[in-house]
Write a structure and sequence with these properties.
2 domains, single chain, Rossmann fold, about 20% strand, 7-stranded parallel beta sheet
Length: about 300
Amino acid sequence: MHRGAIVRILVTGASGLCASAIARKLVAGGHEVHASYRSKAPELPTGMAFHGTYQGSLAERKTFSAFPKQIDAVVHAAAALNDPATPVRKFVEDNVIATHNVIDYALAAGARKFVYLSSVSVSGKVSQSRYDEATPIVDPDPYGYTKRLGELLLNDARDRLASVSLRLPGIIGDGGFPNWLMDLARRLAAGGKVSIHHPDHRFNNAVHVDDLADFCAGYLSRDHDGAHLLTLGASEPMTVRDIVETLAEGLGSTSEIDIVESDQEPFAIDDSAARDKFDYRSKTMEKIIDFLISLHKKN
C-alpha cells in the first residue's frame, strides 16, 4: 500500500458528539477536514474551519457528487442510533446502505485509511464476564446487526483499504447519546431513585469522547494495513458500588439507592489489543466520574 501523509480527511456525521470531537482534533493537527452531515450543520471553535461541508443522505449516491474527488482518509461516524423506536428500514438505510456507499466513495477517491465507529451492540447477548474482539455474536438487535454488516463490508475491502472498526461502549461527553453511566449521573443529580445490580462488578464500559478523538488521530498518523476490529474502554475499572457512591457524593445527591437482583450477567471491556498494538490510551474510570460531576455542576 502506498505510504504518505494523511492530509485530506472526510468526517461523516460531523455534527454528532463523536464526529465533532474527532474533527476538532484533526483540524487542530493541521489536516484538511471535510465534513458531511444530514440536517444540522457542524460547527468548529473560533479560529478553526472545515475545507468543505456537504449536506445530504449518505444512503443516496447523488450526495457524493459534491464530495472531494480525492481523499486520503475517511472517518465514518454517521449512523442511525440505537433507539428502540427506530424502524428497521432506517437502520438498513443509514447503517448498511450508507456505509456501503461511503466505502465505495473512499475507494474511488483513493483513500488509504478508513475509521468506522461501530458498537459493542454487534455482539448482542453477552454471556461472558470479559468482552473483547473474539466475543461471540448472539442475537443482536437490528442496530447491532446493521453495525456488524458495516464491519464486514470493510473486511471485504481489506486488500484495497486499511481500516479499523471500533466497537464502542457508552460514549461520555457533553451532549452525548444516553447510556447507563450518563443516565446514572443525570438521575443522581436530579435526586431520583436509583436501582443498581451487581454492585461488586468492576465496570469500565465507557470511553470519553476526547480519548476516541485522540485514538482516531493517532491511527491516521501511523502505517497499518488490513482490516482491524478493536474494542475500546476506560482504564482502571471501578465497582458499580464505588461508581454510584462517588457520583452521589460529588453531586451532593439525595437519591435513594436500591440494589436489585438481575439475571443479566455483567461484563467488562478488555481493550488490550487496542492498547498493545495501536497505542490506545484512555482516561481512568475515576477521571470519567470526575468529568461527569463537573459536567452536571456546570449545567
